[in-house]
Amino acid sequence: MYVIDTTLKKPLHLQLYEALKEDIIKNYTVGEKLPSIRSVASSYSLSKTTVESAFSQLYAEGYLQSRPKSGYYVRDFQFTIGASMDATSSIAPEIYTSYRYDFFPAQLTKEDFPLKLWKRLSTKAINESLDFGAYHDGQGESALREVIATYLVDSRGVTCHANQIVICHGFSDAMALLAKLVRDKYSHFAVENPGYHVARRVFEEYGYTISKIDVDAQGLDIDALKSSKALLVYITPSHQYPTGVSMPIANRLELITYMQSMGGLIIEDDYDSELSYDSRPIPSLQGLDKHDCVVYMGTFAKSLSPTLRVSYMVLPKHLIPLFKESYDAHFPRVSLITQHTLKLFIAGGYYEKHIRKIRTRNMKKHNLMKQLFQEKLLNSFEILSQGGGLAILIMPTVPFDWEKFNALAEKSSIKLYYANERSGGNFEALRMGFGGFSEARLEEAIEAFSEIWHKSII
Amino acid sequence: MYVIDTTLKKPLHLQLYEALKEDIIKNYTVGEKLPSIRSVASSYSLSKTTVESAFSQLYAEGYLQSRPKSGYYVRDFQFTIGASMDATSSIAPEIYTSYRYDFFPAQLTKEDFPLKLWKRLSTKAINESLDFGAYHDGQGESALREVIATYLVDSRGVTCHANQIVICHGFSDAMALLAKLVRDKYSHFAVENPGYHVARRVFEEYGYTISKIDVDAQGLDIDALKSSKALLVYITPSHQYPTGVSMPIANRLELITYMQSMGGLIIEDDYDSELSYDSRPIPSLQGLDKHDCVVYMGTFAKSLSPTLRVSYMVLPKHLIPLFKESYDAHFPRVSLITQHTLKLFIAGGYYEKHIRKIRTRNMKKHNLMKQLFQEKLLNSFEILSQGGGLAILIMPTVPFDWEKFNALAEKSSIKLYYANERSGGNFEALRMGFGGFSEARLEEAIEAFSEIWHKSII
């Protein structure tokens, strides 16, 4: 007997379906005939429709087969009862350690985000008759690409048209897209050493041969690049990651001329160009290129928020037809609401104002951190990179017990980031992020940091 | 003489910088000394700070070098003036043809999206103290993963824990992530034939060998899969794409048992499970798996909106540590606001209500389309797939002039989608989408369609 309870909220056909299914699995043999719909309906005082509905579901799932004018029979299924695994049992819960002072080098404070404005623009974006039923342009909304192009031309000296821009959901996404796009043409990828490891990782994943090219006081060593024979090179010319070196104009031009002559491609990552404190931001290398051989990578992660997941790349014109034919051109990579809100934010002039505010605010923190290092660490350290972004790169100039230092940091709940973890290279330097602290908290944090620093000097 | 205009809004140091830069490029030679800061300041009645600022910028950009106690000199840069390319000139404007009747098979109407509610929840999500300064969990927000897990367990019979879910920005994104994740273990990928080409394309891009396995009335031909020796297989068991066949329980179990015995992996794409009209949605194949050998793929594109760019996959437990070690675990793939809004939408019970509404609405359109086909096309066609999703698959059963048909469609501004364009297979069938039409528009559209159809019958 099946238990069918008419007082339950669960539909009767569903109750019957479950009871029947269990019964079939446990008690029926293959080929056995089920009672007729009419008899089940009458036994349980159910309508024929209800019973039919349960039977059809079991039929649809393959438990039953139907013989015309005869009825339903149990199908040949073998119900293997394997070693049962409880999906919820064997995974350890996720533990996120929260540190007292976290010097994460790519963080902004919550207050840095224009919350109220974003809310207003986001509502406006939803209101403005977006078509939520359709797939949109896989390259990104053209209205957003237009305002980004204007911004890049005006503020970064990039020479581009909206048609060259592809909206991506982050730097690694853009790099992956590019890696796929050009792999019929290139197979050898050069990166700066030390350099941003994400760039290398992405191209490694797509099977490229990797050459690491040393960085000196002029940025990438162009002779070493020539020796490597790589025709695809990733660089951070405005503010080299992680050394902070800016590539001089002569080297930029030499690099462009060389790569153009060889049919090569330069990937310029302008990763924190909006946050430059010592001088005006250096115009992009892409703007010097007259030969259509530079891909320009930019992001809103540092200048606005990493949570939005919006970045972009500017393709050289010769790659646009290739992109449009590619599979990636079919699906947008960022939500329509986000794209439209961001478009309103840039078009309304808010982005420029916001950058100025963020730059001023973070320049203060940058200068405060520098000053605090000088006051607290005295002559025991040197600054390797400064003047931009959200971190200062330092290293000790005195004999230093790194093991002890790390143990003390852990004990004092201070989270530190080593330059070589994210960028390779053989120097032991710390990437000290200031962006995630308020000024007051930054003072506290450096106080705590300097205590463990001094204890680690041998 | 440089033109420095104090009445302009542009800062003086910027005016000077630009004038100097042009002068250097045009008139100076390498090694030539620039006038001293003092003399420039006095010649143009500018402050020393203003002049210093312009000089430092040129220094930072590599145009000048500085010799201590001597002054600034022009650096050795070669200014190559290549064949100038005007970036805005040579790209044709983008032309999107808008059709009178577009039968796109994966479209919803604008009215299907819960606009007001989404606006409210989105504002709430922004209010609820999100930390916009920080990078978040690359696997997706755990609160969103929790509610998706609950939904999947309750509605799709999936056995899973939030820890197994990865939030992606679309089906192809999830597939790419998986292709990377398991490629040390597998190199041979089997797909249904006919089958969804995006799945094949993604794995091809990652260098997998592809086997196409025929689909019959029971879904994937398991014997053919065995012969292929592929240990990684992509299937759409609930509603095969594009044939609509549902894989019977016996085959599901046989497939699981076989793949488990061989150490294989099944990728179940449950792509339009929420939109099932003939019977209740068939529970997932994943829920039958006791051996941790199924990856489950789901999306919000069809049940909510393709513009949100949110999908997810449920990994078998043994792949979770691998994912967590992978590079992809570092960066979220969907914006925090979208994730948080969606979480509120599901947790508030709105998603279930919404699915019911969408299902009813689209079932009506599905039935209307079917009825209209029967009325207008009479005996000249057969339905190959129906009962779910946003499209009905039809083909002519009479001699048919496809060339003429396509020409007429173009002329009448009717956009059609062939099943084999997106899924391979050797049948010429049309995927007729109804989701993007209102009922009234659907009648019009089928009327226009039937006219060109009849003219094409030979």
The main pleated sheet of chain A reads as: 8 strands, mixed
Q: Can you tell me the CATH topology of the largest domain in chain A?
A: Aspartate Aminotransferase, domain 2
Distance between the termini of chain A: 82 Å
CATH classification class of the largest domain in chain A: Alpha Beta
Query: What gross morphology of chain A would you assign?
Result: elongated
Number of helices of chain A: 15
Instruction: Show the largest interface.
Output: A-B, 104 and 104 residues
Can you write the helix and strand succession of chain A as a string? HHHEEEHHEHEHEEHEHEEEHHHEEHEHEH
As a percent range, the share of helical residues of chain A equals 40-55%
C-alpha Rg of chain A, in Å?
31 Å
Number of strands of chain A: 15
Percentage of β-strand residues of chain A: 5-15%
Q: Which segments of chain A are poorly predicted (pLDDT under 50) over 5 or more consecutive residues?
A: 79-96
What's the architecture of the largest domain in chain A, going by CATH? 3-Layer(aba) Sandwich
Whole-number tally of structural domains of chain A: 3
Q: Main sheet of chain A: which strands, in order across?
A: 4-11-10-9-8-5-6-7
CATH superfamily of the largest domain in chain A: Type I PLP-dependent aspartate aminotransferase-like (Major domain)
The computed structural class of chain A is alpha/beta
Which oligomeric state applies? homodimer
Instruction: Tell me, rounded to a whole number, the average pLDDT of chain A.
Output: 87
